[in-house]
Design goal:
The complex is a heterodimer of chains A (320) and B (305).
Chain A lengths: L1 H23 L4 E6 L9 H16 L4 E6 L5 H13 L4 E4 L5 H7 L7 E5 L13 E6 L1 H15 L4 E6 L4 H17 L4 E6 L6 H13 L4 E4 L5 H9 L3 E6 L10 E7 L2 H13 L6 E4 L6 E5 L1 H13 L8
Parallel strand pairs in A: 1-2, 1-3, 3-4, 4-5, 5-11, 6-7, 6-8, 8-9, 9-10
Antiparallel strand pairs in A: 10-12
Helix pairs in contact in A: 5-6, 7-8
Chain B lengths: L1 H30 L7 H19 L2 H25 L4 H23 L23 H5 L4 H19 L1 H11 L1 H6 L4 H27 L11 H11 L4 H23 L6 H19 L19
The chains are: A alpha/beta (320), B mainly alpha (305).
Chain lengths: 320, 305
C-alpha cells in the first residue's frame, strides 16, 4: 500500500515539474478578445480582429496566440466570457466595447496575474485601486474632421447627412468632428444628424439614408456595423459616402470617397510590451492621426469620378 | 410638404414589408393553434440563403426560391417539434430562433466571410397606376417583394375566411376536438400552416437581403421576427389589422427618422421610443374589444380517450 502511494505521489510530482518545464520553454503571449459584433462587420470589431492578425503575422504564431468571442453585445454574456478567459490564464483580455467597463472593474481584481484592457474609454479604474486594467480610445473626431472637410468640398447641395448609432464613445466623437470639419469649409452648410439607437439595425440605418437623401443630402456618412445597408442606398441613389472604423470601399467603390481606418496595433504593441515587462495596467492609449493609429484611406475612383462627373454635368463652373 | 409625405410613406411601406410576410405567416400558424417564436431565426436563414444564391448566381428568382425552400425546411422542423413531438411551443421557438441565428452566422462566416452587397430586385413601376399623382409614387414604384407583401393581406384574408381550408384552419385552432370528430386531419392542417409560416418567414428574410437592404450581415434582422410575433397579437389574428399594425409601427418609425433628419429639436432617445409608445397606446385603447387568442393556441392536440 505504502509503496503504491509513494509511486503515485512521485508520478504526480514529476508530471507537475515536467509541465512547468514545458511551460517555461517558448511560452507564447496569449490574448483573448471579446467583441460586440462580428469580426467581419466592416467596422469596430473587424478593426480589432485585423490588428491582432497583423501582430500575429509580425511575431509569428509560436509567439502570439489569440482567441476571440464575437457578437457579445449583451454585457452579461460578455462578462461571463471575460471571467472564463481570465480563469484560463490568458495574459491579456481585451473587452472591445465601451459597455464592458463595469464588468471589468468587478472581474479584474480577482485575477491579478491577468491584464485587462477595454475601449473605447479613458478609464483604467486606477482611482478605484485597480492596477491591471488598460484603456484605449480612438480620437475619431480627427478623421471625422478630415472626412467633413472633404464632404463639404464635394457637396453641391450644401446638405450632408450623418447616420449615427448611439450618441456615445467614438461614434459621437466622429460625428462631432465631422460636423466641425464641414462647417470649417462651408459655414452655411446644413449637417443633418440622426441616431438609430442601435449599432446593428441595418434596416433603420438604410431607411435613414433614404430620408437624408430625400431631405436633399448629396453626401452621407455614418458609423457602426449597421451602415452596410445605408452604403447600398448611397450607391443605388448615386450619393457619396464617407466611412469610418474600417475601409468600406469594397461595398460601393463608385461612391465611397474616403474612410477613416482604425489601426489598433498602435495601441496593442506598447500595451503588450508593458504586460511582458510586468506592468499590468494603469495606462490609457489613443489612436490618433499623429501616431498613425488613424489613417485616411482615399478611394480615388469615387473622388476623381465625382469631380469629373460634376464638370460633365455642368454642376461645376470652372471660373478663371 | 408633398415630397415629405411621399418620402415618409415610401419609407413606411418598405419598413413594413418584412413584418407583413412574417406576421401573416405567424397569424396563420397561430390560428391553427401553433405558436412559433422562432420567426426571427427562420427570417435569418431565409435572408442568408437568398443572399448567398444571388451572390453566386446573380439570379434573384433563384434567390427567392432558395429562401422559400429553406423556410419550408425550417417550417417542417418546427412542425415536427411542436405537432409531432408536442414540445412546449414557447420554449422550442426560442430554440429554433437561436439555431437559425447561429447557423446563418456560421454559414455566412464560412461561405461568404466578409460583408458584401448584391443587386437586389429593382423598383418596378406598375403601368398606369404609377402615374397617379402622390399615390402612384408611394405605392406603385416599389420592388416586387413589396407588392407581394401587400397582396398577401387580401389573399390570406380570403383563404382564411372564405374557403373550406380557412375554416378547417380556424376550427383546428379554436376547437380541435370538434374538428377532429368531423374528420379534419389536425396534424396535417398544422403541418401545412407551420410550413407555410416558415416559407413566409423565409421570404421576409429574403425581402431584406435581396430587395430592401441588398446585403447580409450576421443578425441582419435585429429582432424583427419578435416584433412580427407581437404584431400578430396587435392584429388580433386578422390579416387586415396586422396590416394596420405593421403600417402604424413603420409609419411612426419613418416619421421619427424624418424628425431627426430635419433637426427638429427633440432628443433622439425620445423619438426612438415613439413607434413603441404609439403601438402600446393603440393596444391599450383597443383593449376593451376583448379579442381572445385561438382557444387551442399553444396546446398540442391529444385525441380524447
Amino acid at each position: 500500500m505504502k509503496l503504491k502511494k509513494i509511486i503515485i505521489i512521485l508520478t504526480l510530482i514529476s508530471i507537475f515539474v515536467l509541465s512547468l518545464g514545458l511551460g517555461a520553454s517558448a511560452k507564447p503571449f496569449r490574448v483573448a478578445v471579446i467583441m460586440p459584433s462580428s469580426i467581419s462587420d466592416m467596422a469596430f470589431s473587424q478593426s480589432m480582429y485585423e490588428a491582432l492578425v497583423t501582430i500575429q503575422e509580425e511575431v509569428g504564431k509560436e509567439n502570439f496566440e489569440f482567441v476571440y468571442s464575437e457578437n457579445m453585445f449583451v454585457v452579461a454574456d460578455a462578462a461571463a466570457a471575460i471571467r472564463d478567459y481570465a480563469s484560463e490564464g490568458y495574459d491579456l483580455v481585451i473587452a472591445h466595447g465601451s459597455q464592458y467597463g463595469s464588468s471589468l472593474m468587478e472581474i479584474a481584481p480577482d485575477f491579478p496575474n491577468t491584464s485587462f484592457t477595454w475601449g473605447t474609454s479613458v478609464n483604467t479604474f486606477s482611482d478605484k485601486g485597480i492596477t491591471n486594467i488598460f484603456a484605449y480610445e480612438a480620437r475619431s473626431e480627427e478623421g471625422g474632421y478630415v472626412c467633413g472637410v472633404l464632404a463639404a468640398k464635394l457637396s453641391q447641395t450644401g446638405i450632408i447627412g450623418v447616420i449615427g448609432p448611439i450618441e456615445t464613445g467614438d461614434a459621437k466623437l466622429y460625428v462631432d468632428g465631422f460636423k466641425v470639419g464641414v462647417l470649417a469649409i462651408k459655414p452655411d452648410a446644413q449637417v443633418n444628424v440622426n441616431w438609430t439607437g442601435s449599432f446593428s439595425d441595418v434596416a433603420l440605418a438604410s431607411e435613414a439614408a433614404q430620408t437624408h437623401i430625400n431631405a436633399g443630402a448629396d453626401v452621407l456618412t455614418g458609423t457602426a456595423q449597421m451602415v452596410v445597408g445605408a452604403i447600398g442606398v448611397a450607391r443605388q441613389r448615386g450619393v457619396l459616402w464617407f466611412g469610418t472604423q474600417a475601409d468600406q470601399t469594397s461595398l460601393a467603390p463608385e461612391v465611397v470617397v474616403a474612410n477613416q481606418v482604425y489601426d489598433w496595433t498602435v495601441v496593442l504593441r506598447p500595451m503588450i510590451q508593458l504586460v511582458k515587462e510586468g506592468t499590468m495596467g494603469g495606462t490609457t492609449y489613443a489612436l490618433t492621426l499623429a501616431n498613425g493609429g488613424l489613417k485616411i484611406v482615399v478611394n480615388q475612383e469615387a473622388l476623381v469620378g465625382k469631380t469629373i462627373q460634376d464638370i460633365v454635368e455642368g454642376k461645376t463652373n470652372i471660373e478663371f | 410638404m408633398e415630397a415629405i409625405i411621399i418620402g415618409i410613406a415610401k419609407s413606411a411601406i418598405r419598413l413594413a414589408t418584412p413584418y407583413l410576410y412574417a406576421s401573416i405567416g405567424e397569424t396563420i400558424g397561430q390560428l391553427s393553434g401553433v405558436l412559433n417564436l422562432g420567426v426571427d431565426g427562420v427570417m435569418l436563414m431565409g435572408a442568408f440563403s437568398a443572399f448567398y444564391a444571388v451572390l453566386k448566381t446573380g439570379n434573384l428568382w433563384l434567390g427567392l426560391l432558395v429562401a422559400i425552400v429553406v423556410g419550408a425546411i425550417f417550417g417542417l422542423l418546427i412542425a415536427f417539434i411542436n405537432v409531432t413531438l408536442k414540445a412546449e411551443q414557447g420554449i422550442s421557438g426560442i430554440g429554433v430562433y437561436i439555431f437559425g441565428l447561429g447557423l446563418s452566422s456560421l454559414l455566412f462566416r464560412t461561405m461568404v466571410g466578409t460583408v458584401q452587397t448584391v443587386s437586389g430586385f429593382p423598383p418596378l413601376s406598375v403601368p398606369w397606376l404609377s402615374n397617379i399623382p402622390v399615390m402612384g409614387e408611394i405605392f406603385f414604384q416599389q420592388n416586387i417583394l413589396v407588392y407581394g407583401a401587400f397582396a398577401l393581406v387580401p389573399v390570406s384574408w380570403f383563404v382564411l375566411n372564405k374557403t373550406p381550408l380557412g375554416l378547417s384552419i380556424r376550427a383546428v385552432g379554436q376547437h380541435p376536438e370538434a374538428a377532429d370528430s368531423l374528420g379534419v386531419n389536425i396534424v396535417r392542417i398544422r403541418y401545412f400552416t407551420v410550413i407555410l409560416g416558415g416559407i413566409l418567414s423565409g421570404i421576409a428574410g429574403a425581402s431584406l437581403s435581396i430587395a430592401l437592404l441588398n446585403v447580409f450581415q450576421q443578425n441582419l434582422t435585429n429582432g424583427m421576427g419578435f416584433i412580427a410575433v407581437a404584431l400578430v397579437y396587435f392584429g388580433a389574428w386578422r390579416p387586415k389589422t396586422v396590416l394596420i399594425g405593421a403600417l402604424l409601427f413603420s409609419t411612426v418609425n419613418a416619421i421619427q427618422i424624418w424628425i431627426q433628419v430635419k433637426g427638429i429639436n427633440v432628443p433622439s432617445d425620445f423619438t426612438l421610443m415613439l413607434p413603441y409608445i404609439v403601438t402600446i397606446m393603440v393596444l391599450a385603447a383597443m383593449a376593451k374589444r376583448r379579442i381572445h387568442p385561438p382557444a387551442a393556441l399553444n396546446k398540442p392536440f391529444e385525441r380524447g380517450e
